[in-house]
Amino acid sequence: MLDEPTRILIAAAICWLNFMTVDLIFKLPESGGVSGATAIAQEVEKGGGALNGGYMMGNIVSSPDASAGTLLASCGVFCAGFFGGLFAAVLVYVGNRICYDPGYAGTTGCITATFIVYGAMQVGFAASDFIAGMVIAILTIQGISYVHASRLVARLWSVRCRWLRGCR
Amino acid sequence: MVACTALAFIGMAAAILERDPFDKLISLSVMIGGIFPFIVDRGYLDVVTATALIAPLSTIFILMVCRRQQA
Amino acid sequence: MPVAEGMPVIAIYVCAVIAVYAALRVILQRNTMRKLPFLNVMSFAVTGIIALLLPHPITIAAAAAYFVGSTLESNAIASTWAGGIKKDE
User: Fold this and answer.
1) Which candidate, A96, A136, A132, places its Cα nearest to that of A117?
2) Domain hosting residue A150, numbered range
3) In 3D, which of C29, C52, C50, C49 has the Cα closest to residue C39?
4) Of the candidates C8, C33, C63, which has its C-beta nearest A75's C-beta?
5) Where are the domains of chain C?
6) Whether the Cβ atoms of residue C77 and residue B59 lie closer than 8 Å to each other
7) B6: nearest CA in chain C?
8) Which candidate, A34, A132, A166, B33, has a CA 20 to 30 Å from the CA of C18?
9) In chain B, how many domains are there?
């Protein structure tokens, strides 16, 4: 099978697509969930980024969403197999409720990520690749440059608005 | 492990150097995050869980004090 | 550190390097609100390190507790910061 760095990069791409799709479906870039997320979005916009991307970054910071669900699902599959991922989904839901969030995005992302990681393990990936890949994926969204990342998220958000109605 | 030591020391240095109370709290949470892998490496999973639950609560109490001073 | 059979060494290195990088970015960023995304990256990386170091069923609970705690912490910091600004105006 492939080398470990190659598998980590492929897993990073898969995780990125997974949590971005789930977050966009559950309308995370539409508005700030709590007042802290709104404050982060306004600061990001003041620094030259886009407002909708800032909302998404603020929501990721202030409550466990689909990205946290993906990470904890791969941790669960790595530690305890398939049912560990489902148990991680329960924990993500509890964590969402602690942070005053409805918790649909995190739980859905966790369950889909559990199936994705478990399916990829049958093909030849290891679950640890998905943990490192998810860390790389969150680094590309929040860690490199908030200006470019928020503009990218805002562009994806406008594409999603064009395809599916119901946002603003 | 070397990286985790670096994490703890970076957080400590930043906590000494920062002036704003919010920046100081953020540096403190960096320092706490650097400590966790050492506890996990020894295998004390219950200690990790308890510490991970207690640390944010203490931060929230300090935040209440900050807000009281600002208001 | 005893290296077990089939332990994902490269994954741990990736997580550790990203954690140190995010911590440096947290220190170098001057704006308080813009520090929080980098802090979130660091907590993702530390959660990955926790899970990768010790594969045991209770590790899921520990990693989830650390992540939820860190998220709650940054949530409280951001909310208090926003509330303080509103009171000043």
Assistant:
1) A132
2) 4-163
3) C29
4) C63
5) 9-88
6) yes
7) C20
8) A34
9) 1
pLDDT tens-digit profile, chain A (168 residues): 567 778 888 888 888 888 888 888 877 667 766 777 788 888 888 877 778 778 888 888 887 888 888 888 888 888 887 888 888 888 888 888 877 777 677 788 888 888 888 888 888 778 888 888 888 888 888 777 777 888 888 888 788 777 776 555
The pTM for the full model equals: 0.85
Least Cα distance to A84 among A131, A17, A123 occurs for A131
Nearest-5° Cα angle at B26, A110 to B23 = 145
Q: Which residue of C has its CA nearest to A62?
A: C75
Residue A116 lies in a domain: yes
ipTM for this prediction: 0.82
Place of tokens 């926003």: C82
C-alpha distances in Å from residue C41, one per residue of A3, A40, A145, B21, C1: 26, 15, 12, 21, 25
CB within 8 Å: C46 and B37: yes
Q: Using the Cα atoms of residue A37, residue A38, residue A41 and residue A43 in order, give the sign of their dihedral.
A: negative
- Residue B48 φ/ψ, nearest 5 degrees: -60, -45
A13 within a domain of the structure (yes/no) = yes
